[in-house]
Every structure is written in C-alpha cells, then in structure tokens.
Specification:
Shape: globular
Helix content: 40-55%
CATH superfamily of the largest domain: P-loop containing nucleotide triphosphate hydrolases
Number of strands: 18
InterPro entries: AAA+_ATPase, ABC_tran_Xtn, ABC_transporter-like_ATP-bd, ABC_transporter-like_CS, ABCF, P-loop_NTPase
GO molecular function, one term: ATP hydrolysis activity
Pfam families: ABC_tran, ABC_tran_Xtn
Family: Belongs to the ABC transporter superfamily. ABCF family. YheS subfamily.
Structural class: alpha/beta
Organism: Litorivivens lipolytica
Radius of gyration: 28 Å
Strand content: 15-25%
C-alpha cells in the first residue's frame, strides 16, 4: 500500500501540495493528472526517494521494487538490446558475479539464481519489448548513441518495462510513440500485475490502462475511482454546483450542440461520420469537467479558399535516392478532414513534410491552390522558435499592424500571460513551447492544417481545447496522432500509409486497433501463429471497396461529382456566412437592449427601432437555417 498523510511539498518556493492525503492499495492502476507545473513529476521523485516531503509522510512497503521511466539517456555505446537488459539489475548483478567466480559452490548457487530468474528467456523478452515499441530487428544491436532523442526515450521505456517491479512509474510514456506502439503498450500494461502510477495526456490510453485517478489541483490531491471518463463525469458533478462554472458550461454545450446540428444531416454518409457524432454527443455530457480550463482558443475563419487547396499527382516521396512512398495521388479540398494511419517508419511524417513543402518530391508533381494558406505543425517547429524573443514579439513580426492588446489577448487564450507573454521563452517547458508553436500557426489564419503529433508535450486540458478548436476549424485538416480521442473527434476520413502506398481506409479506429493486435507477434497476449501473418496486409474490413477496375474513369467521375456539387457547396458557405453575420448582430442588439437607459421615455423611438431589427433578424436567421438544412439534405442525396 502507498499512503500519503498530511503531505506538503514545495519546489523553488512554490507550493505544489498542501496537507494532501491519499491511500492506494496493491495492484491498483492510477492515472496522476493535473496541469503542467502542478507537481506530478515531483510526486514521482518523492516516491522514488529523490525528494523529501516538507511536512507529512509518505509510506511505501520497504521491500517493494520500484521501476521508473527515465526522461534522459546519455550517448552510450551499448547496443540497444543490452541497454534494455541492463534494466534487469538483479540479472546483471548475478551475471557479473558469475564471470568472476572461481568457487564451485558459489557457481552452483549463482546458476540456481539464474534459473529462478528465468534467465534464458531474458534476452528474448528484451527483444520483444523493443519490437513492440517500434524498433526494427536490424536495430537491436545498434548503439544507443546512434538513436535520436525520441528513440532514446523509447529505450528508457523498454528498460523500465524490463525491470521486475512492484511499483511502476511511467511519465508520459506515449509522448514519442506512434499509435501501433501505443496500442502494444496498452496490452503490456493490462497484463502488468504490480501497482501502476501513470502520467499521461492521452485519455484513451488512460481509459484502457487505469482504474483510478489522482487529480492534482489547487495544491490538493483528490482521489477518484474509475478511469478518466469516469473522473470527468464525477468532477463535472462537483463543478456544476458552482454558478460561474455552470455559465461557462452552458456556453460550451451550446457550442457542441451547434456543431452537431450543422453536421447531423451527414450522419448516414459513412461509418466515420456516425462515430464522430456519437463522440461529440459524449463530449457534450462531459464538457463541464473542463469549465475551469485556462485554454479557450478558436481558429479564425480562413479569408480565402481554393479548390483543391493542394494536390499530389503520381508522386514518389522519400529521401535522397531512397523512395518511401510511390504513386501517391491526393487532392486536399476545403473541408477535407483526414487522419493518417500506419506503422512507425511507414511514411506518415514524410507525406506531411512533402505536403508542407519541407521535403521535395523524388518524382511527380505538387500543385498549390491559388489561395493556399498552410499551417504546418511538427516537432521541429519547437526547435525553430526564437527563444530570445518574447511570444508577443514573435506574433508582432507576423502582423506588424496588430495592436499589442490584441496580441496579448490572443496569447492569453493559450494560457501564455503576463511575463510569459512579454519575456524570453528560452526557459519554456516542452508543453509551453508546443502551445506557443500552435499559437503562431493559428495566428496566421491557415486554410490547410498539417499536424504531426500535435498533442506531444501538451497536458489534458490543452489537448481538450485543441480538440474543440479543431472541431470548429473551417479549413482542411490532415493529422498524424497516436491520440485516438483527437482523431475520433476531428477527422472524417482515414488514409492508411502502408507498404509504400497511401490508400483510403474503409474502417474506423476500432477496426484498425483490432487488425494491429491480431497481426502483432510481439503482443503480450498474441498467439504464436500471428508471427507468420503478412505485416503488409491491407487491414481494411472491406478491401474490395478500394479496388477500381478503371482508375481513369474513377478520377473523371470524381471530378464530375465535384463540379456538380460546387454550386451547392457555394450556397451552403454563403448561408453559413449569412447566419454567422446575423448571429453576431443579434448578440450586439441584445447587449444594447440590456442597457437600462434605453427604456427611458426619451429613448422610446430608439428602443422600438432595435426591437424591430431584433425581430427581423430572428426571422431571417430561422429562414436561413431552413435553407441551410435543405441544401445539406440535397448535398447528401447528391453524394449518395
């Protein structure tokens, strides 16, 4: 059992915990959640004995073996598989003594200890951990120093999993994993028999691996039973009792309902659309749990659009003389919302880099639309920030005529406020840099967003805010993410990058998950027969739908369909613009009508004028909504 009693913890003069109590029983699986800087990592250091409480006590069984995932690794010449085996310290200790032992009696004892440790299987276990986390067989003997920072973190994760433990501490284990490795890790943790404490921003991952939540907020530690979804519901019940929280909750629910109303007409279009609407309805129920979030940004409406925005034709993608993807044909249209699936190294990031113009084509053509405004987020964006300039200065450079207060208000919606907004960002954390990089992209009003693992380094509240903002984004979106909640709630179509091709995927994320686990020979619960399965097999549940006997005719039909639907799309956009304008004017009228001086006798004429305009606008808005619904139904019928 782990027990915190009246625990207080300060770091750098900042209070993280004050008189906190918590009791966790053996075998529980606990997600430790809270905003960046709230003290989650410090609490892990406390459990590892690296920190001492300022007051109170922490009790852990003295015989417990503790494994944790280190966040840094030095450039070592150790082979990857040997580095992972080093995590099994007892095995390495026996192995080292065995090599120097000359006493026959002691040799027999040491061999007995190796048998008890099941030592013959340890190298194989290390290899399976590495393969499960995305390493290739030819990388097992690669020196640690030859891996990039993200892959070294994976090595640390593998080493932590290799270490026999009673308590496992994992701090953001999915940060540098793709979806394939994340799903594998889920299965591994589900089979883990010890006590698990997990810090993660991936809500689906928490739901799959944890049955308790410990929430760090306002210097207190609150225990909730159930997974993350259960935590949201329980916390929402508490917050709904506060009037200020209730008002913000209603605004968020109205936003969700408006989104569902606009897109519900498309619910029969495809399985993806059905899944998305169900997820949005679920989000509406849990939204109050986020009413005190410090993040509330939106993407501005793109000023101009081209159709298509961007096209790849007969494209070969790769590096130097090495092609990774061939015969890529992709047109990105206004309103496209695409999620990229595929194993690590399959070419998802390469495709995004090529679409973003960062990586040149090896063959084929990349065609930009006349009004393309590209927003591209990847991890190198964090490295390209001007660390000596303030966030406000970096935005001012992009829009020299923008008012200072406008810039500060905008940065505030990303919780970059006060000295953070006006001072150097050299000491920003990874999460703060990621928020600034996103803010810079949003500020430039893109009409096509390319996002490569945008939730890495973000906390749960910021991930939620990004998901909501992307739902309201009116441009096109292509995203690579291991965060299934983000994908499920922001994309309509999936593209599988696999075996040198990028093809439409007919199933949903649950289909993809089932296929991955069924073929994965490294899975803790996989059958040995899975090892013979073809890793390049198309996982589509209805692969025949993707086959076309006449590709030229299919392209011509698609072009004709787009031309036929263009007037409807234009009508719908016009109606939406009109409704937005009417709603803004209604809001202004209601603010004016709230002025008590307007109801004095001297202002009677003005009052009547405003009331008349209010009535006309409401009638106009109702008429436009009816037209919009009819146009959507017509669009649905034309596409079926």
């Amino acid at each position: 059992m782990i027990e915190f009693e009246q625990l207080s913890l300060l770091r750098g003069g900042k209070t993280l915990l004050e008189n906190a109590d918590l009791r966790l029983h053996d075998g529980e699986r606990v997600a430790l959640i809270g905003a960046n800087g709230s003290g989650k990592s410090s609490l892990f250091a406390l459990l590892r004995g690296e920190l001492e409480p300022d007051t109170g006590s922490v009790r852990i069984p003295p015989n417990w073996r503790i494994a944790h995932m280190a966040q840094e690794v030095s450039a070592s010449s150790r082979a990857a598989v040997d580095y992972v085996i080093d995590g099994h310290e007892e095995f390495r200790k026996v192995e080292a003594e065995l090599s120097d032992c000359g006493d026959d009696m002691r040799l027999a004892e040491l061999h007995g200890q190796l048998d008890a440790l099941n030592a013959y299987a340890i190298p194989s276990q290390a290899e399976q951990l590495l393969l499960g986390l995305g390493f290739k067989p030819d990388q097992l003997q690669t020196p640690v120093r030859e891996f990039s920072g993200g892959w070294r973190i994976r090595l640390n994760l593998a080493q932590a999993l290799m270490r026999p433990s009673d308590l496992l501490l994992l701090d953001e284990p999915t940060n540098h994993l793709d979806m394939d490795a994340t799903l594998w890790l889920e299965q591994w943790l589900q089979a883990y028999s010890g006590t698990l404490l997990l810090i993660s921003h991936d809500r689906d991952f928490i739901d799959a691996t944890c049955n308790q939540v410990a929430h760090l907020s306002n210097h207190s530690l609150t225990h909730y039973r159930g997974n993350y979804s259960a935590f949201e519901r329980q916390r929402a019940e508490k917050l709904a009792q506060q009037q200020s929280a209730y008002e913000k909750q209603q605004a968020e629910i109205a936003h969700m309902e408006n989104f569902i109303r606009r897109f519900k007409a498309k619910a029969t279009k495809a399985r993806q659309a059905q899944s998305r609407i169900k997820a949005l309805e679920r989000m509406t129920q849990i939204a109050p749990a986020h009413v005190d979030s410090p993040f509330s940004f939106t993407f501005p409406v793109p000023e101009k659009m081209s159709d298509p925005l961007l096209t790849l034709t007969q494209a070969t993608l790769g590096y130097g003389d090495t092609p990774i993807l061939r015969d890529i044909k992709l047109s990105v249209h206004p309103g496209s919302r695409i999620g990229l699936l595929g194993a690590n190294g399959a070419g998802k990031s390469t495709l995004l880099k090529t679409l973003g113009g960062v990586q040149p084509l090896l063959a084929g053509q990349r065609t930009r639309g006349e009004h393309l405004a590209l927003g591209y987020f990847s991890q190198h964006q964090l490295e390209s920030l001007d660390l000596d300039a303030s966030p406000a200065t970096q935005l001012q450079r992009l829009a020299p005529k923008a008012r200072e207060q406008e810039i500060l208000n905008f940065l505030g919606s990303f919780n970059i406020r006060g000295d953070m907004a006006s001072g150097s960002c050299r000491n920003f954390s990874g999460g703060e840099k990621a928020r600034l990089a996103l803010a810079i992209i949003v500020w430039q009003k893109p009409n096509l967003l390319l996002l490569d693992e945008p939730t890495n380094h973000l906390d749960l509240e910021m991930c939620q805010a990004l998901t909501v903002a992307l739902q309201g984004f009116e441009g096109a979106l292509i995203v690579v993410s291991h965060d299934r909640h983000l994908l499920r709630n922001t994309v309509d179509d999936l593209l599988l990058v696999n075996a040198g091709r990028a093809t439409p995927y007919d199933g949903d994320l649950d289909d993809y998950r089932r296929w991955l686990l069924s073929r994965d020979s490294t899975s803790p619960s996989a059958e040995t027969t899975n090892a013979s399965k073809d890793a390049s097999q198309q996982p589509s549940p209805s692969a025949d739908k993707n086959k076309s006997p006449d590709k030229k005719q299919a392209r011509q039909d698609a072009a004709a369909a787009r031309a036929r639907l263009a007037p409807l799309r234009k009508q719908i956009k016009g109606l939406e613009a009109g409704m937005d304008k009417a709603q803004r004017r209604l809001a202004e009228l209601e603010e004016s009508l709230a002025d008590t001086s307007l109801y004095e006798a001297a202002n009677k004429a003005r009052l009547q004028e405003l009331l008349k305009e209010q009535g006309e606008l409401r009638q106009q808005l109702e008429s436009q909504e009816e037209e919009w619904l009819l146009a959507q139904e017509e669009m649905e019928q034309a596409q079926s």
